[in-house]
Amino acid sequence: DIVMTQSPDSLGVSLGERATINCKSSQSVFSSSNSKNYLAWYQHKAGQPPKLLFSWASNRNSGVPARFSGSGSGTDFTLTISSLQAEDVAVYYCQQYYDSPPTFGHGTRVDIK
Amino acid sequence: QVQMVQSGAEVKKPGSSVKIPCKVSGGTFRSYTISWVRQAPGQGLEWLGRIIPMVGTPNYARKVQGRVTITADESTNTAYMELRSLRSDDTAVYYCASVFSGSSFFEYWGQGTPVTVSS
């Protein structure tokens, strides 16, 4: 199985400041056949189901604010929140779907500092 | 807009089974990939398996293979996940999730069904 490793485990960010979450896969999730990275990002708030933020590493899902961005390729990916808002407090997960089984990172908790 | 509605919380004895429905509306049921994902207390997200109703053949995670069955009823637009021989470490919130196409990321989610396994 492809192992997804996120860093850091948690981070505290001041309102309006940047938050950066890293995700590394144990093998490349890039497909040369379609030039796509099979990597998704989710936001998970307590008591709610996870919410898809990005598919294909950087394809923002409908309704996701522009302050969220996804980047990276191959084995190294980043989720950035450019200006943290109070409603962004959550656990964020990366997930690969290049190979079966789809696997998730262990999550990164984002709080207000 | 696709909506996925699951049943309410369950409390089960070790060794018993649970079967959770997930009713899908707002999309072409048979064309979606429907997966089941769980989150144990204090843990991350774990994929259990998936089915594409149009294809019919499910795929399962090795960890639950042999104990899990995922089915899809096109007449009612409902997917089901049955987990047997329940153990305490099956205590989790179980989600159905879907995406249009054969990909395995998860665009639409059910609200989650908490399952507690306790004697």
Question: Your description of this structure?
Answer:
The complex is a heterodimer of chains A (113) and B (119). With 113 residues, chain A is mainly β. In chain A, 0% of the residues lie in helices and 51% in strands. Chain A contains no helices and 13 strands. In chain A, the strands form three sheets. In chain A, strands 2, 6, 7, 8, 11, 12 and 13 form a seven-stranded mixed beta sheet that branches. Chain A is globular and about 40 Å long. The model of chain B has no long low-confidence stretch (mean pLDDT 95).
Oligomeric state? heterodimer
Structural class of chain B: mainly beta
Strand % of chain A is over 45%
Query: What proportion of the residues of chain B is helical, as a percent range?
Result: under 10%
Q: N- to C-terminal separation of chain B?
A: 40 Å
Mean pLDDT of chain B: 95
Helix/strand/pairing class of chain A, anyone? mainly beta
* Uncertain runs of chain A: none
Mean pLDDT of chain A, rounded to whole units? Answer: 97
Low-confidence stretches of chain B: none
Put simply, the count of helices of chain B is 0
* Main sheet: strands, sense, barrel of chain B: 7 strands, mixed
Number of strands of chain B: 11
Q: Rg of chain B, please?
A: 13 Å
Report the count of strand segments of chain A.
Answer: 13
Features:
heterodimer, A: 113 residues, mainly beta, 4-stranded antiparallel β-sheet, 0% helix, globular, B: 119 residues, 7-stranded mixed β-sheet, 11 strands
